[in-house]
Write a structure and sequence with these properties.
- This protein has 366 residues and is α/β, with parallel strands linked by helices.
- It has a single domain (52-356), classed as Aldolase class I (TIM Barrel, Alpha-Beta Barrel).
- It is 48% helix and 12% strand.
- The strands form 2 sheets. The chain has a 6-stranded parallel sheet.
- The termini are far apart.
- The structure holds S-adenosyl-L-homocysteine.
- S-adenosyl-L-homocysteine binds at residues 87-88, 125, 127-128, 156, 158, 178-179, 181, 220, 249, 251-252, 254, 291, 326-327.
């Protein structure tokens, strides 16, 4: 009897595995699945399926980018934020964090330092800080554009009006990162206070696209209340919206937020999702994020081996890095920019990849 029982179980497992493999094959060949199929994938996968998907994802990465990894210099220019997102360490309700805001000169000197280190993309990221009005922000963007005409300027400043996005684009910004956080409106409501709306966030993404930016969306893996069906919706959304970039990383709790006691997102699931994203849009700009490097010491290398093709070393001044702590134990908060660049270069070389210094536009754009 026992033998029969084990036999049946093995059959069930291998049938599931066959289903999962055939879904991965379909994604590899056609780059689309429907919601139910994504849900099946995300509930039924195991580590050997993830390895199977990663091998296919890396073939696509190499097809579009060979062994080249793009670098983006990240400048975290303000940790002042009007929003109170439950997961985020710089939420306005965190009174324990010391707030800072870089001056225009400081931002420009980060760019100069980055330029000398070989960066040709600057990512200005910050909290939603009302000090940075359109006039001020456009002044900064146009000055970066004037001083570094061969560089791409990426903004990640959260939700703004369509007019604001338009003005910043005209001032010289090329790309905008705005993670959608979750493609499920109800789940969004569990991660944010009522004053923030999922509809508005999604509208911002459409406005950015229509303005002409190369657009990046993205989500956290393992955020509180997240279920496979939410991730299936995220994948459907990305399949439809077809962003130029997509940033994903594990949720990591921050001790001064309402989610302090929630578990971190899964490292393995994050890697699997990176592979699926590469299969959904083979030329996607897909960063191997700092959060992935924070939950596993080789996370960023493994992200590349799962299909990612971008790394974002930190260019922020060392004295403020600790204050841009979105989650606990964030890595690289003590390093100089040059150290961050060198460290990532060595890590990428250890897996046979090469960090390149061009703008790294999405294929077909420029
Ligand atoms: N204010 C900007 C930038 C936000 S910070 C904006 O709204 O777009 C960039 C990203 O960090 C967020 O979009 C979120 O997905 C991620 N993040 C924030 N808190 C996090 C946490 N605790 N763990 C993992 N990622 C987090």
């Amino acid at each position: 009897m026992t033998g029969l029982y084990i036999g049946r179980r093995t059959d069930i497992i291998s049938n599931m595995s066959i289903t999962i493999r055939s879904l991965i094959d379909q994604l590899d060949a056609e780059h689309t699945l429907d919601f139910r199929e994504y849900e099946t994938l995300l509930t039924g996968w195991d580590s050997s399926d993830a390895a199977y998907a990663a091998a296919k994802a890396v073939i696509w990465r190499q097809h579009y980018f060979s062994n080249k990894i793009y670098v983006r210099g990240l400048i975290e220019f303000t940790n002042i934020c009007r929003n109170d997102c439950y997961y985020c360490g710089i939420r306005r309700g965190n009174h324990a964090v010391e707030r800072y805001r870089l001056t225009e000169e400081q931002i420009l000197s980060c760019c100069r330092e980055g330029y000398e280190l070989g960066f040709r993309t600057f990512v200005l990221q910050g909290g939603e800080d009302a000090y940075f009005t359109d006039d001020r922000m456009c002044g900064i963007v146009s000055e970066i554009r004037r001083r570094f005409p061969d560089c791409a300027i990426t903004l990640s400043l959260g939700e703004r009006s369509r007019e604001s996005y338009q003005r910043l684009f005209e001032a010289g910004a090329d790309r905008y990162l705005l993670r959608h956080e979750t493609a499920d409106a109800e789940h969004y409501g569990k991660l944010h206070p009522a004053e923030l709306s999922w509809e508005h966030r999604m509208q911002c993404l459409r406005d950015l696209r229509e303005t002409g930016y190369q657009v990046g969306c993205g989500f956290m893996v393992g955020s509180p209340y997240q279920k496979p069906e939410h991730l299936a919706k995220d994948l459907c959304f990305i399949q439809e919206f077809r962003p130029e970039m997509c940033g994903i990383g594990p949720f990591i709790p921050h001790h001064q937020t309402p989610f302090a006691a929630e578990p971190a997102g899964s490292y393995e699931l994050t890697l699997f999702l990176l592979s699926l994203l590469r299969l959904i849009k083979p030329d996607l700009l897909l960063p191997s994020t700092t959060a992935l490097g924070t939950i596993n010491p080789r996370g960023r290398e493994m992200g590349i081996l799962a299909g990612a093709n971008v790394v974002m070393p930190n260019l922020s001044p060392t004295d403020v890095r600790k204050q841009y702590e979105l989650y606990d134990n964030k890595i690289c908060t003590g390093d100089e920019s040059a150290q961050c660049r060198d460290c990532l270069e060595t890590r990428m070389e250890s897996i046979g990849c090469e960090v390149v210094t061009d703008r790294g536009d999405a294929p077909g754009r420029g």
